[in-house]
Amino acid sequence: MHRKPIRHCRECGTAVVYRLPDDGDTKERAVCPSCVTIHYENPLNVVGTVPYFDDRVLLCKRNIEPRWGKWTLPAGFMELGETTAAGAARETVEEAGAQFELEDLFSLINVPVVGQVHLFYRARLTSEQFDPGSETLEARLFHEDEIPWDEIAFQTVKQTLQRYFADRQSGQFRFHTIDLV
Ligand code: ZN
Fold first, then answer.
1. What pLDDT, on a 0 to 100 scale, did the predictor assign at position 153?
2. Among 15, 21, 116, 124, which one has the highest count of C-beta atoms within 10 angstroms of its own C-beta?
């Protein structure tokens, strides 16, 4: 999902133009021709978890676009004022209604084509009961051989799940940095 270009100045509402600012900057920015505010656009963080219970992993079936009806790990855009860990925990509560203890950061995935960085923490589930929110059709645990690999909503989720099960097999969880280009 590419972000839409900025159309109007956040300060005064005038239609912006994309051009090189006058300060020697080498990238085109949305510049307001009226008040000369420069609007910088930077990558957004998506934060989530790999919630697990013994040898199974929790997936959520999406009740929202994009990828309605596909399976995902609980994840969403980080909010201002929260840490990455707090955001990952919040999304896991909102989307799955899960009870868990947050563990180490597991994967960091750069997705420069959409201007996003995705971060997934491992989360040890303390209950097999889930109470999914309105963004989720169904939340359930999957063994590795039950994972619907062709029905996974996002590459970032697929790559994280593949590494999670590989690490689980090897008996040691590592931190993974992945560039999706
Ligand atoms: Zn302006």
1. 97
2. 116
- If phi > 0 it is left, if psi is from -120 to 50 it is alpha, else beta; for residue 27 that is beta
> Rounded to the nearest whole angstrom, what is the distance from the C-alpha of residue 20 to the centroid of ligand 1?
16
Ion ligand 1: residues, CB within 5 A, are: 9, 11-12, 14, 32, 34-35, 37
Query: How much is the pLDDT for 24?
Result: 87
DSSP assignment string, 5-23: PP-B-TTT-PBPEEE--TT
Domain with residue 73: its CATH number is: 3.90.79.10
Q: How far is Cα 129 from Cα 121, in angstroms, rounded to an integer?
A: 20
> How much distance in Å is there from the Cα of 10 to the middle of ligand 1?
7
pLDDT digits (tens, 9 = 90+) for 40-81: 999 999 999 999 999 999 999 999 999 999 999 999 999 999
Together in a domain, 32 and 82: no
